[in-house]
Design brief:
Elements (H helix, E strand, L loop, with lengths): L7 H10 L4 H19 L2 E4 L1 H16 L10 E5 L26 H8 L3 E6 L11 E2 L3 E2 L15 H9 L4 E6 L5 H7 L2 E4 L26 E6 L2 H11 L27 E4 L10 H16 L3 E3 L8 H14 L7 H12 L8 H9 L3 H24 L2 E5 L18 E4 L2 E4 L5 H7 L5 E8 L5 E7 L6 H14 L6
Parallel strand pairs: 2-3, 2-6, 9-10, 9-11
Antiparallel strand pairs: 1-3, 4-5, 6-8, 7-8, 7-14, 11-15, 12-13, 14-15
């Protein structure tokens, strides 16, 4: 059998049946990476010797009667996760030699589940881009078109999956960093509910590794099928054993429905801040048609939907509020001067971000209070609907753009340019209130690029969008190899 694009579920079944060994799967994956990754540059930190040793141990464990969820399955890990014995740099040249002393919680959970870690995948500088390039490890290309980005900041993981370098990967998401690369590369990703999966050990290099919970940011699974997302989420989910894990056990509720005809979906393809490109709109409509054809209830409007413009503004303020915490005093004072000079009439997202950078604690509390109102609005909406279908970004993968002046960048939507970071509004729709969202492929654009959508679900009901993703995969197809 050709193992290149086999799912994790298929690999586990083959390993259990004795049709293949972990050593064979690992050697096969390493051979592909050594042959093909020179063109893509997805695996920035290989760990092949230890992977082969882990594969041998997995085979020995299985021969001894052990059976764990991912025993013997080759996987990759986003570069920002600490892995003992491998550098963690976040693409920062000053930290190119930083070596953590222990594994991140999620790396430990992968290894405990029996996974074989092939290596680490590339990221942008400081994880702060919708692309994946840095001075240390270079640029990762999209396997579908090397002139385009695979997305960021989990772009290396998405590119690795699309190229057949392992069956699973783990990434993170603050500004669509799981969902955008999945959308750009034609794979699957799941942004869990905020706080569902512990993130200790995914911190900037040389930063104390503490069991802190970060606002907006999550860690989550990436795969080539919806069922594999669920398999990996079950490994990742759960509180940090140093804090909530002392007292709490996780029990996720089951999906609300098992049949497509029972689902109620709200479909969105318009946003007040930025248009949706024709290719992405077509992808949203493919999903809407599949839902309707399957007997699901599909609506295009609801009075219960929280205000999208305010949601985007709150997200931008919250996203940028923590970004300047360690700025030098003189730089922070310059930001205060710039923010004070803004016209009260300037309600652009760039203005919202600048205002967010200089929020007082008092003002931040009020922004957070507005977020709680939105969360309540989402609870009311999800009493009437089971999922919201909407874009991940307004376009398929865009050409590489390494302009260091991020605010000068533009995104081309059907021939018209818009501020680069305004495309984050769709990712922020789920991130700001902390909702789960599953990114799924919907097919190819007329130009031959993957197009995905996201399925946003009720808080802590992650299995609902995941189940819907599985049902849609059966109807419209899923991953297609480049």
């Amino acid at each position: 059998m050709e193992w290149k694009f086999a799912t994790a579920e298929e690999l586990v079944a083959a390993l259990r049946a004795g049709e293949v060994t972990s050593v064979e799967l690992t050697d096969d994956a390493i051979t592909r990476i050594e042959r093909d990754d020179e063109l893509i540059n997805a695996i920035c930190v290989p760990d092949f010797d230890r992977a082969r040793a882990a594969a041998r141990r997995a085979d020995q464990a299985r021969a001894g009667g052990e059976d764990r969820p991912l025993l013997g399955v080759p996987v990759t890990v986003k570069e920002c996760y600490d892995v003992a014995g491998l550098p963690t740099t976040w693409g920062m040249p000053a930290h190119r030699d930083f070596m953590p002393a222990e594994d991140a919680v999620q790396v430990t959970r992968l290894k405990t589940a029996g996974a074989v870690v092939l290596g680490k995948t590339n990221v942008p500088l400081g994880l702060q881009d919708l692309q994946s390039f840095n001075e240390i490890h270079g640029t990762t290309d999209n396997p579908w078109d090397r002139g385009r980005t695979p997305g960021g900041s989990s772009g290396g993981s998405a590119a690795a999956l699309a190229a057949g370098f392992g069956a699973l990967s783990i990434g993170s998401d603050l500004a669509g960093s799981l969902r955008t690369p999945a959308h750009f590369c034609g794979v699957y990703a799941h942004k869990p509910t905020l706080g569902l999966a512990a993130s200790r050990g995914m911190v900037p290099p040389a930063t104390p590794v503490l069991p802190a919970e970060y606002d907006l940011a999550v860690v989550g699974p990436m795969a080539r099928t919806a069922r594999d997302l669920t398999l990996l989420l079950d490994v990742m989910a759960g509180p940090d054993p140093l804090t909530h894990g002392i007292a709490y056990d996780l029990t996720l509720p089951p999906a609300r429905h098992q049949r497509l005809s029972d689902f109620r979906a709200l479909v969105l393809d318009e946003h007040p801040f930025i248009p949706t490109g024709s290719a992405v709109r077509a992808g949203v409509n493919r999903v809407a048609d599949a839902l309707a054809d399957g007997g699901a209830r599909v609506e295009r409007h609801s009075r219960l939907l929280p205000d999208l413009a305010e949601a985007a503004t709150l997200y931008k303020q919250l996203l940028f509020s923590g970004s300047v915490a360690r700025f030098p005093v003189d730089e922070y004072e310059q930001l205060q001067i710039r923010a004070a000079a803004l016209s009260p009439d300037d309600q652009s997202l760039d203005a919202a971000g600048l205002r967010g950078m200089v929020l007082s604690h008092r003002d931040w509390i009020e922004v957070n209070n507005r977020r709680e109102h939105h969360r309540h609005g989402w609870r009311q909406l999800f009493a009437e609907f089971d999922a919201v279908v909407c874009p991940v970004t307004p376009t398929p993968a865009f050409p590489h753009d390494h302009d260091p002046d991020l605010l000068a960048r533009r995104i081309d939507i059907d021939g018209v340019e818009y501020p680069f970071f305004d495309q984050l509004v769709w990712a922020g729709l789920a991130t700001m209130p902390g909702l789960p969202a599953t990114a799924i492929p919907t097919g190819l654009s007329p130009g031959g690029l993957p197009v995905g959508v996201q399925l946003i679900g009720p808080m802590f009901e992650d299995r609902t969008p995941l189940r819907l993703a599985e049902l849609l995969e059966q109807r419209i197809g899923g991953f297609v190899a480049p």
